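Translate sequence into structure tokens.
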Amino acid sequence: MSWSRDEHTFGRRGYHHGNLREALVRAALELIAEKGPAGFTFADAARWAGVSSAAPYRHFRDRQALLADVARRGFELFEERLSRAWNEGRPDPFAAFENVGRAYLAFAREEPAFYSAMFEAGLPLDGDPGLREAADRAFAVLRRATDAFCARLPVDRRPRRAARSGGARLPPRAQPDRRAIGLTRAGVAAYVNVRHIHMRRSP
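Result follows.
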């Protein structure tokens, strides 16, 4: 498992005075890439960043807080890529929606460490307001794109509203980590469904 290093590279000896928070985030990304989100401890992240086991507590209360910060950054990057792909529905909702689907899959392929922190770490979104807000903004792009696409389809060919809403019927504080995973799967399912419908409509 690997993650893109073009702008995230830091490495085990990458800590410089004043950048401890960034060093720990990047250490966590490296460790997630090698061992998965459950495969390392808070002390492991400290050693990877080249600092004492006590140093991380200056910025994070515990390992989960560190993972939440990684996931938040991932969702922010995810939103940026989805929004750029959607481009306010230009040149038309069909093409723009296909671009969103491609951007979604590309993110999962190109940023597996971020993606793993976002969807495989089991983080409760309600435990970190910043993480929840970042996740909600990213999924809002998927919902806007899906709704705009489906609005152009005949009513009898539109996916069920439940699938397009991405699990919005769940109680807002119930199983927040499952909700995030459900929203993601709903986005992919909607993309596959409407893409199939669009292909059937083509001559």
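Note: The domain at 1-60 is CATH 1.10.10.60 (Arc Repressor Mutant, subunit A).
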